[in-house]
Amino acid sequence: MHELSIVASIVDTVTESVAAYPGARVQEVHLRVGALASVVVESLEFCWGIATEGTSLEGSKLVVKTLPVVMHCATCGDVELEGVQSFRCPTCGEPCSDQRQGRELEIESIEIEDGQEAA
Amino acid sequence: MTTRIVELRRGILKKNDELAAGLRDRYMGAGVLVLNLVSSPGTGKTAFLERTLTELRASGARVAALVGDLETDNDARRLAASGAPVRQINTHGICHLDADMITRHLDGWELADLDYLFIENVGNLVCPSSYDLGEKIRVALLSVTEGEDKPLKYPTLFNSADAAVITKIDIAVPCGFDRDLALKNINEIRPGIRIFETSAKTGAGMEEWLRYLAEERGKRGN
C-alpha cells in the first residue's frame, strides 16, 4: 500500500547519487528486498514507471533481488526459511527467534551509462 | 559511452530509521516506556487503550497517547476521557505513522514527566511494520472476531512484534474462536512472544497486561 512512497524515496536517492556523474543516464536500479520487508515487488515495478515519468530516470529499469529469511538456530547455525509461514529451523524443527536476514529494503547499486568521467 | 555499476548500499527508509533512532534516544533519556499498538481496523485498539490509560492513571502512573487515523479526531476524544493527555495524528490517506509525524506531534510535551507513552497506529496490518517509531515495544493486536489465521496471513507484522494482545475474549465463545489454534499460529510466526488474552469490556486479562507494563518500565534501558 505504501509502495508509491517507497518508490518516490528511491527516485530521490538515485537522482541525488547520480548528480555526481554529469551526463550519466541511469539504466538500472538494483534493490535488495527481504521477504519480511512488507513490500510487493510487482507493485514497486508498477509504481516505478509512474514515479520516473518525466524525470531523468524515465526509461530505467528496476531490478529487484528478493532475499529469503535467514534465522539463527542454536543447534544448526544460520538457516534459510522457505517461506514466512513458520519460524522453525527447517533442519531440526526448533522454533527460532534470532533473525539474521529478511527485513532488507535497500538500493544496492545503480547501473549508469557514462556521459563523461565522474566529477 | 561506458556502462558501469555504482554501489549505493542505501537503506530506502534510512531517513525514517535515523529519525526513529533519534526518538529512541529521547525516550531513553526521558525514561519513558513507549509502545506502538498495531492491528487491523476494528480490532479494538482504542477500547483496549482507553482501559489501559484509565487503569494506569488510577494506579498513579503518568501516561499520554498519540493516536493515528486517516481522518477524524474521534479516537483522541475517546481516549482523552481517561484524563490522559492525547493528541490525534491525521495522516490524510497515508496508511501508517512514521517517525517524522511522531516527532512533530511530540512538540511541547515534556517526555521526562511521563512514565508511559502509547502510540496507536493507523488500523493496518501491512505498512506500519516497515516504519520504526523508536518504540521499545511493538504490540500486535488480534480480536477473536478476526480469524485465528491472521498471524499467518500477516507474518511481517506479527514477526516484528514484541508482544501480542488478543482482544474481545468476552465474545470468544459465540464467535467460535479457536484459542489453541490462534496461540499456535502466533507462536509459529513469533516463537516465544508474550501473549495477553484480554477484554476491554470485562477487564479480563488487564491485570496481567498492566503487570507486564510495570515490569518492562522497571527494566533498565527503556
**How many helices of chain A?**
2
Shape of chain A: elongated
Structural class of chain A: alpha+beta
In order across it, which strands form the biggest sheet of chain B?
4-3-5-2-6-7-8
Distance between the termini of chain B: 55 Å
- How many structurally independent domains of chain B? 1
Could you describe the largest sheet of chain B, including whether it forms a barrel?
Answer: 7 strands, parallel
- SSE sequence of chain A, one letter per element: HEHEEEEE
Global structural class of chain B:
alpha/beta
Individual helix count of chain B: 9
Radius of gyration of chain B: 18 Å
Chain pair sharing the greatest interface:
A-B, 38 and 34 residues
Oligomerization? heterodimer
Average pLDDT taken over every residue of chain B: 95
Query: Which spans of chain B have pLDDT < 50 for at least 5 consecutive residues?
Result: none
Sheet-strand content of chain A, in percent, reads 25-35%
CATH fold field value of chain B: Rossmann fold
Strand content of chain B: 15-25%
Say how many strands of chain B there are: 8
Low-pLDDT parts of chain A are: none
**Globular, elongated, flat, extended or rod-shaped: what is the shape of chain B?**
globular
